[in-house]
Amino acid sequence: MKGNEEMHFERFDKRNLLIFVPCLLFAMPIIFSGVFYRDDYWRVVTGENFWGWAGRQGADQIAHVLSLSKFHVDSYPLGYILSIVFICYVLFIVSKHYAIKKDYAILSLSFLFVSPFFLQNLAYRFDAPQMVLGVALSILAFYRSNGRSANTMVSALLLVLALCLYQPVVNIFLGLVAANFCFLIKNFYRDRFVMYVWDVAVFVLGYVLYYCFQILINGGVARSGTVNSTELLGSLMDVFVYVYEISASLFVGYSLYFYGLFFLLSIFCMFLLYWDFVKSHLSVRKKVLASLVLLSMPVLLFFSATGPSFVLEEGVTDVRVLVGFASVFMFFAIPILKKMPFHMSTVVALLPVYIAIVLSFQFANATKAQRIFEDRILSNVSYDLSFSDTDFGDIYVAGVMPTAPMAKVIVEKQPFIDFILSPMASWISGPALFGQGNENVKISWELIGQDLVDDVCLNVESPQIERKFYSIYNYEGRSIVYVGEEDLLCDES
Q1: Sheet harboring 470-475: ordered strands across?
Q2: How far apart are CA 207 and CA 213, in angstroms?
């Protein structure tokens, strides 16, 4: 019996832990933090606000299954657990059956999930599972594409499903196309250019099928308005600057040295691999063509992170749409894992994975500290509303919560987290205050109307109730709860 157990243990490839452990450590702190993030407050107090109108019908269906209802019924953390298990399983299947059987394949695949640019996606309590599933389907779509008609259609349909879950996740596909052209990461081999063109064709086919589906279901795709041709260059520059600012915020403290070592060694290993390619017996024509395509890789990698956002009126709306950046990290990890000795390359490649995991813990701690701080403020507001003799009537919320002292320490030392912390604005704190039992609170996605502010401020000399972090104004059956460190509501009006 003991011998059988030993044989079973020997058959287990311990390198698979390089997939499971990073993914679990990365997701664990956010799962365990248990906070509501941004849109979550609206959904938890109303049971509404789905995503079908935005072309994410798949996200709706997953939410219905998890809720056992056509409303949002909080089943946290079931969705998280199931989606993390699913993406780990997909990465395992890809490493075993579709990736080239090399040591670097296992570790490099974890980069597609363990990325700082996916932290904000994980924070959304109600649709994080759908985003995780979308990433998994995008990865599977790429690795299933092998030039055969049946697999081409399967890959395109997987992309359609991923788009119906969360559109930006399919940008990972483009990064994988770039990685495959440069380093051959799929176990299916044909001419590099043939594979490149075929994979791009699969990507385009997936988008075309998705748009046809959306036209049939919704008559079009929401948020798909494009900028004028004269504004394209300016929009592209805005996206580039935004991506640069967010990326630069990661290079602080020890992360600067870890990332620096990682990228410098990656570039060095790329040159070694390119030199091996130059010395190969390929024709001069193929070498020239390959070199030209390689020069285009930075452009492809940039768009794998941003997608077509520069042509859209909305542009890059938040860090969460940059989920495709994960494939960029993978792209730079592969040369290290392919050219350096296994144990040494593993240590170096794990540096950005370690940074992402640390940021996950710090982000979870900052978000939890922020929410505790905000909940205490709202509890005080609720107490004042409940136990005052004033008839506050309809209650509106304005202002933005201050950053919690404990969260402030984290965002000052980790500027990247400041981009995604998201202290409560009025469209968040309104539903949160409603959830405290104040049914007269009017919740809305829009900011409070200026007409209401002017009406109150012109007729009220001072707040009815004034505290350190909030003030309550009341006039003729309407009240405004202004949240902030200073009383600026009427000064600004």
Answers
A1: 394-399, 478-483, 470-475, 465-466
A2: 10
Output the tens digit of pLDDT for each of the chain's 493 residues. 455 544 444 455 677 788 899 999 999 999 999 899 999 999 999 998 899 888 899 999 999 999 999 999 999 999 999 999 999 999 999 988 888 866 667 788 999 999 999 999 999 999 999 999 999 999 999 999 887 778 889 999 999 999 999 999 999 998 898 888 888 888 876 777 788 888 989 999 999 999 999 888 887 766 666 666 676 777 788 888 888 999 999 999 999 999 999 999 999 998 888 887 777 766 777 777 777 777 777 777 777 777 776 666 666 678 998 998 999 999 999 999 888 887 888 899 899 999 999 999 999 999 999 999 999 999 999 999 988 777 788 899 988 999 999 999 999 999 999 999 999 999 999 999 999 888 889 888 877 877 888 888 888 878 888 888 999 988 888 888 999 876 677 765 4
- Count the alpha carbons within 13 Å of 234 in the hemisphere toward its beta carbon: 6
Q: Do 67 and 202 belong together in one domain?
A: yes
Classify residue 357: in a domain, yes or no: no
Residues 394 and 478 occupy one common structural domain: yes
For 441, list phi and psi in degrees, rounded to 5: -70, 130
Q: Is the peptide bond before 77 cis (omega within 30 degrees of 0)?
A: yes
Number of domains making up the chain: 2
Same domain, 335 and 382: no
- The DSSP 8-state label assigned to residue 403 in this structure reads P
Q: Assess whether 219 and 273 both reside in one domain.
A: yes
Q: Specify if 7 maps to a domain.
A: no
- Greatest alpha-carbon span in the chain: 88
The end-to-end CA distance of the chain, in Å, is 80
- Could you tell me if 463 and 73 are in contact, meaning their C-beta atoms sit under 8 angstroms apart? no
Query: CA–CA separation, 487 vs 468, rounded Å?
Result: 9
DSSP 402: P
DSSP letters spanning 267-285: HHHHHHHHHHHHTSS--HH
Domain with 77, as residue range(s), is 12-340
Enter the DSSP assignment of 404: P
437 & 310 share domain:
no
Cα gap 407→183, rounded to integer Å: 41
What is the C-alpha separation between 125 and 111, in angstroms, rounded? 22
Let me know: does 168 contact 322? Beta carbons within 8 Å.
Answer: yes
Residues in the chain: 493
